[in-house]
Specification:
Methylamine Dehydrogenase, Chain H, five-stranded mixed beta sheet, 6% helix
Length: 437
């Protein structure tokens, strides 16, 4: 069992005692499945997988493919969306946004925000339901969509998030359990995916003003806590996804926003610590954590910066708990990968690099070409970098650069790759691929 998977199992186990019977049942099912399958086919239940850091235990993954080679199936997905597929029990779950003229939905709104379930073996759509909707013109970035937040799937629930347009829980037959709206004003759309902690569904709301982090009751959708960001940033909007970590037995929610990253108590929302990086907004990458260090890749304006932070402080720890900083070859969009005391990055403009986790020293850098938004995948000691034009470079995860393969689907792709034993699921602008060996 990987360190990330072990942490998720432990977090779920510890959550069973303090919650009521209904919630224990909801959590116990995915907990049992995680334990039972730790040596078999892997589920991929959230953005960046079981531990939220892009690590996969899947086996026999393909290394080489093109539109005519090793494609098990390709299926069109209606509408538009850049959420990554998630996987559970042989079923694929994803979201999409369908314009009114493209659908005959029940809402009659301008855009129907939908949840889909597909069979992983055949690619057949098993159900396709509206989970939220929006009307009128809503400005988003050309690289964004109205369905960019990756859903979460548990043993009997699917959670979807469409920014202020709606958040919902569905059962695994596609029936709506609850729907809620959290009012805030995203800029350029949303990109932050939700996370689950115990009986809470938590997500960032970093809009044009008064950014905050919020937790909903996963059984009912009712708000349980809300914590405002410190009012420091001039440009307040960001798109990062939080990460739950364990710091010597204390669980923390690490959440990056404009100008700062904070550690929170995930049960109460209390802010524990803060590190500032002034004049850095539109933060996208998800934090990663290993070796006692949280790594944060900051945003615009200008070059991004990579910060290695000890998350064991209290209050403003900017001057005391930042272990090292790096300012070259740091991504604005793709999240980092940590493996075997090395940090692997792919910059938005196609420079791959590897740094020492403890010191930040550069082991290597290599221009692989292309532009990048998707976060990389680690599996079988290999790293998969997926570019926006559908090219995937596969390298060895090692302190010396070694390229294994280059592949090209010849279709635009901004979603992160989802692995399963013997195959990869890759979402493109035209649909969803299952790539095999």
């Amino acid at each position: 069992m990987t360190e990330a998977r072990s942490l998720q199992v432990r977090l779920l186990y510890e959550s069973l005692l303090p919650v009521n019977k209904t919630i224990r049942t909801l959590i116990a099912i995915p907990l049992f499945f995680l334990v039972a399958t730790s040596g078999s086919a892997e589920d991929w239940p959230q953005f960046r997988g079981p531990g939220g850091q892009g690590h996969s235990t899947s086996q026999n993954l393909p290394i080489s493919w093109d539109p005519d080679t090793n494609v098990v199936w390709k299926k069109n997905v209606p509408g538009n969306g850049w959420s990554s597929p998630v996987l559970s029990h042989g079923l694929i779950y994803l979201t999409t946004a369908v314009k009114k003229e493209e659908n005959t939905t029940e809402s009659g709104n301008d855009i129907s925000l939908r949840a889909l379930c597909m069979d992983a073996e055949s690619g057949d759509v098993l159900w396709n339901v509206e989970a939220a909707a929006l009307s009128g013109e809503t400005r988003i970035h050309p690289k964004n969509s109205h369905a960019s937040a990756t859903p979460i799937v548990t043993g009997d629930r699917m959670f979807v998030h469409f920014a202020s347009h709606g958040t919902a829980a569905l059962d695994l037959d596609g029936n709506i359990i609850w729907q809620e709206k959290i009012d805030y004003n995203p800029i350029h759309g949303t990109g932050s995916s939700p996370v689950l902690y115990e009986d809470l569904l938590i997500f960032n709301c970093d809009g044009s003003e008064s950014p905050f982090v919020v937790a909903l009751d996963s059984a009912t959708g009712k708000e349980r806590w809300r914590t405002q960001r410190p009012d420091l940033a001039k440009m307040k909007f960001s798109f990062s996804t939080p990460l739950v970590i364990d710091v010597k037995g204390q669980h923390q929610l690490v959440s990056a926003g404009s100008d700062l990253v904070c550690g929170y108590d995930p049960q109460s929302g209390k802010q524990l610590w803060m590190v500032q990086y002034p004049e850095k907004w539109s933060v996208v990458p998800r934090p990663v954590y290993a070796g006692g260090l949280v790594l944060i890749s900051t945003g615009y304006e200008g070059p991004a910066e990579l910060l290695a932070i000890r998350p064991n402080g209290s209050g403003n720890v900017t001057e005391t708990h930042v272990v090292w900083r790096a300012k070259r070859f740091v991504p604005h969009s793709p999240s980092p990968i940590i493996y075997d005391n090395c940090v692997y990055l792919i910059s938005d403009n196609g420079i791959a690099s590897c740094r020492d986790l403890e010191t930040g020293d550069l082991h290597w850098k290599e221009r692989v070409g292309g532009t990048y938004s998707a976060s990389p995948l680690l599996a079988e000691e290999r790293i998969y970098f997926m570019s926006e034009d559908g090219r995937c470079t596969v390298i060895q995860a090692a302190p010396k650069f070694h390229e294994l393969a280059r592949n090209d689907l010849k279709e635009r792709s901004l979603a992160s790759i989802t692995p399963t034993d013997g195959a990869l699921l890759i979402r493109t602008i035209e649909g969803l691929y299952r790539i095999g060996r």
